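Minutes, methods subgroup
Present: GH (chair), OT, SY

1. OT presented the first of two proteins processed in the latest run. Sequence and structure tokens recorded below as shown on screen.
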Amino acid sequence: MKVMVIGRGGREHSLIQTLAKSEGVSKLYAAPGNAGVEAERVAIPETDQEKLVAFAKENAVDLTIVGPENPLLEGLVDRFEEAGLRVFGPSKAAALIEGSKHFAKKLMADYDIPTAAYEAFTEVEPAKAYIREKGAPIVVKADGLAAGKGVVVAQTLDEALDAAEEMLVNGQFGEASREIVVEEFLQGEEFSLMAFVNGRDVYPMITARDHKRAFEGDRGPNTGGMGAFAPVPNLEPGAYEFAVESILQPTADAMVSEGRPFVGILYAGLIETNEGPKVIEFNARFGDPETQVVLPLLENNLEQVFVDVLEGRNPKLRWKDATCAGVVVASKGYPGAYEKGRPVPVLDSGATFTVHAGTEVSEDGYVSNGGRVLLVGSEAANLPVALENVYDHLQQFDGNKDFFYRRDIGLSSVTASMSHHRK
């Protein structure tokens, strides 16, 4: 099979790394890809639908996988399907589950899918009145896409009121924050659960945990994710089954009932509360950086899984009995302003692997070309060993003024499992 992966980040590189290991794939294209991809790079941006379709036709591409959310919400999958091309991802109508927080919250309310209580607002005064009535901590979200940065978990009333003002009055996220969702703050441990979905067919993957805040101790601004590991140890008994049976399956069924059947990767960002898992957010594609730690543990041939799901067959997912952890190296200043073109140290492997996210090639080797530059990951028998491998390898970035990484990815879970074993 000839396969094309659309996108340029770490998620897409991870997809390509996994596909490259498969005997069923004869040719891999990345449009546009990044400097690390083991594929032929195609200089077409993710948003140029006509050129992407033309390329897929001219090169007899058998399967196209759309990585990022923006082209999905712009209807790239619909355009490929109109052209009679096989493509994996949700339609524009189904991708709205990520494209509008208000749509997703209303869907969950209508179909009794567990999530935080909320209200949506387009005017600032009613939003502020609601925030004052509910008190802090409280969560303020831009309705539309804001590259993972449109969420403020406000610990104080002032912070929440400022966030509402910034989004609705000052247009902080442009079109994305013309409407906001204000929801109750949920206490608990977060985890992510992705599934391959075709209409009512739901094939869940293993759990993962992402770390969204920029700095150690879960401090600093929200980012696209600073590191992850899979699977998540010490979830409450029954939490996984509940998430599949009471969240993923009913959501897939609800999308069919709404006339927006979902085909692709449904990503549920979940939180374990005293009342069981609840939904924080849905995404309409592979999570980043969760994909980088989930896919290395998949035993199936990935392209066969995509084909099986598209053709209505159960892919019978199989997973290694192992753990995978990954830590993101980011440009200094991220998620705010940062410089590009900074030299990236040569990464030797060994017990680790590297996933490129924001890199380019210069005469002198790899240079940074994004906020999240790369992820160093490791597969191991357990989480402490995987993390030790990664952090040993990351020492070469110590003292480097151009980049930073979090030194506490997964550590709270390691501590929790150790105290759990002591009991």
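2. SY then presented the second protein from the same run.
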Amino acid sequence: MSDATERHVAAAAERVGCYRWLICGLLFAATAINYVDRQMIGILKPTLQADLGWSETDYANIVLWFQAAYAIGYLGFGRLVDRIGARMGYAVAFTLWTVAHILHGAVRTTFGFGAVRFMLGIGESGSFPAGLKAVATWFPARERALAIGIFNAGANVGAIVTPIIVPIITVAYGWRAAFVITGVLSFVWLFAWLAFYRTPRETKRLGAAELALIESDAPDAPGKVAWLRLLRYRETWAFALGKFITDPIWWMFLFWLPDFLAKRYDLDLMSFGPPLIAIYLLSDVGSVAGGWASSRLIARGHSVNRARKATMLVCALAVTPIFFAQWVSHLWIAVLIIGLAAAAHQAWSANLFTLVSDMFPRKAVGSVIGIGGTAGALGGMLMAKFAGYVLETVGTYRLIFFVAGSVYLIALAVIHLLSPRLARASVEIVEA
């Protein structure tokens, strides 16, 4: 066989379908919608405080109720998704959180906001367990970090879109209409998800070559994983504590960054959009780059352990300049510093999520993600109370940013101590 023929055969062998990337695109879109719904309260914080008379503590408590529900719901949805699958699990979660989002437009009291935020938190807690279950189902191990990085970038797109569309709707029709309009329009995604998502073997549009690629990893052992037994594994705690320590920083960005920009640089509802967009554009790049970087290192022959942790170390170091953001007098220099930290968090997050599929069989992924998500939400609750107290008593973000710049290095040390080699957990499989 000639060299040209061999190259043609090799190229043909590499040409597989791209249906799995359509699934990734749907996950990207759902994550964007999730973050529009989640972030709107942060964008509207000054407006809502003026209209409803909230104190800093009131606002912190409303955020806390969302995160309490997120913590509770993450555990339940992680298990539910492992039982009923990503397709119906995501549909249930999406419907619940979208209805809750629309109901924001009807409430008039602080208690009412706390109640609908609680309902929103329950629904939104299903997003990542279902999304990561779908990635574990549709992608081989060597592509998962990139796929997770791409769909996780939807969070940043949602965070970019929110300060563009929400102020426009709010100025034209009021903040109540902003919740109703964005919620009703997002139901389009649900119809697309139910139309296109099946497991690979149930998908008629999937070619044989792509199915072979998806199933190229060794199959899981038959049976099921007992949820409570997952708490016995150091690998579970490596992921959960990593989430507990670092997730609160992203929550702080979402719920308090518009407030920081408004207070520090005298911006308002119509003017803090461009800085927020710039920050979340940078974080979007970080999300994809983080997944790409560790996948690239693995492709070049590095171990999974070395590739993931080296990438996460770079991310942890890139957050540290946020120490100085409070002292920066120039808006766009502060935007660059905060944007770098946000990008580093998203790159970190893409790799942290991927650790679960590195260390656990597919049938345990949703449950472990649920445990970790609960831990992250509990950390977010502590951050909400901490931020509310600091802003109520001290009035500046200096201490908050000091904590933000420190915790990633601590989290990486904890992960390394609990799982020094990222070895596959010896999960006990029980009969179905």
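Chair's summary of item 2: The first strand starts at residue 224 and ends at 225.
Next meeting: continue with the remaining queue.
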